[in-house]
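Hello,

I think I submitted the calcium ion job twice by accident. Can you confirm which output corresponds to this input? Input:
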Amino acid sequence: MASEFQRRKVIGVFRAMDVDGDGRLTEADFKALAHRWMAVAGSVDPERLASIMTGWWPVLQAASDPDGDNAVTLDEVLHVVEGLGDMADAVSGTADAMFEAIDLNGDGLISRSEYGALIETWNGTPTATAEIFPRLDLDGDGHLTRDEFRTHWTEFWAGDDPDAPGTYVFGALVE
Ligand SMILES: [Ca+2]
Ligand SMILES: [Ca+2]
Ligand SMILES: [Ca+2]
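Support: Only one job matched these inputs. Its output is below.
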């Protein structure tokens, strides 16, 4: 069983990804999310961004749609998350793909504004990140490196520590 804490962590991300709010993640949600990201981020290469974002759907579906109805529920996501503690390598692989998408200017670092674009995309509304970003920037140099991001991403999906900075990589938890 996923812990109550893991459930709380995932539920916020799930709601953000469920763009049409019908309680199921489908390919349409991922297309809408890609659209939103392009609108927020103003990517220099929107097609690349869209393909990374929509590329998540087949991965998620393969991992978490055992009944094959082309929709992924919260319970199905939580079922996958339960197994991720033993799959840290697989999770950090997805971190690298995500990093590529967030690093809009391709300089190999996530800046404050690139991180802000991610969170705003995720929440669908402008969101303050002034308190969260410094916690994620472990060495305090003003950027998130690939290693820093991988650490946080892996903690979010595969960890279970309320005090770890990675718990807040998508922003504050839902109440
Ligand atoms: Ca949906
Ligand atoms: Ca960058
Ligand atoms: Ca840093």
